[in-house]
Design brief:
Layout lengths: L2 H5 L1 E12 L5 E6 L3 E2 L1 E2 L4 E2 L2 E10 L5 E10 L7 E2 L6 E2 L1 E8 L16 E10 L10 E8 L7 E7 L10
Parallel strand pairs: 3-13
Antiparallel strand pairs: 1-2, 1-6, 4-5, 6-11, 7-10, 7-12, 8-9, 12-13
Length: 166
């Protein structure tokens, strides 16, 4: 078990679009969605962003942690998506540094109230080759700790229902 994973507060969300500005402020459009569209002409999902925010207590900063975000299919396995070299596992890993937070001058916020925060945004501006009508789950793990993983299930729009005649 990871000490940092046990202390971390993690939030995952899907959005139509997300970005962070130079000060780290998060900007989200269409956040909190539980499904993405599908473009049958292209064979891919519509554009979307996955936002992961990890906050840890100030007294644990600075900290370095290993972050893994994986897309799971309906069976719970890491999803295989088509790629230039054949099927590839949809998994992203990176080292995240969380610095000691400082209050904004003149804000009056006590230092003890601040938490160190790291934001990771995966933006799929061209969509992903997902299966329409399927359910997927984003999984986030810190330092490989499976006991504190965070899951975010979502669906992919299927084809429109056929007309009912008669």
């Amino acid at each position: 078990m990871s000490d940092i994973a046990a202390l971390a507060t993690v939030a995952l969300t899907l959005a139509d679009y997300a970005a962070a500005d130079a000060q780290g402020k998060l900007n989200i459009i269409g956040g909190g969605i539980s499904g993405v569209g599908f473009d049958p002409a292209q064979g891919i999902s519509t554009r979307f962003s996955l936002v992961a925010q990890i906050a840890i207590p100030r007294d644990r900063c600075p900290a370095e942690l290993a972050l893994e975000i994986a897309l799971l299919d309906a069976t719970g396995d890491v999803a295989d998506l088509p790629g230039p070299a054949g099927p590839q596992k949809m998994r992203v890993g990176q080292v995240v540094n969380i610095e000691i937070p400082s209050p904004v001058p003149g804000s009056g916020v006590p230092r003890e109230a601040l938490r160190g925060v790291a934001t990771t945004i995966l933006d799929f501006g061209n969509g992903l080759p997902l299966t329409p009508g399927a359910v997927y789950t984003w999984r986030l793990q810190i330092d490989g700790d499976e006991t504190h993983e965070v899951l975010y299930p979502f669906g992919v729009s299927g084809p429109p229902p056929a007309p009912v005649i008669g």
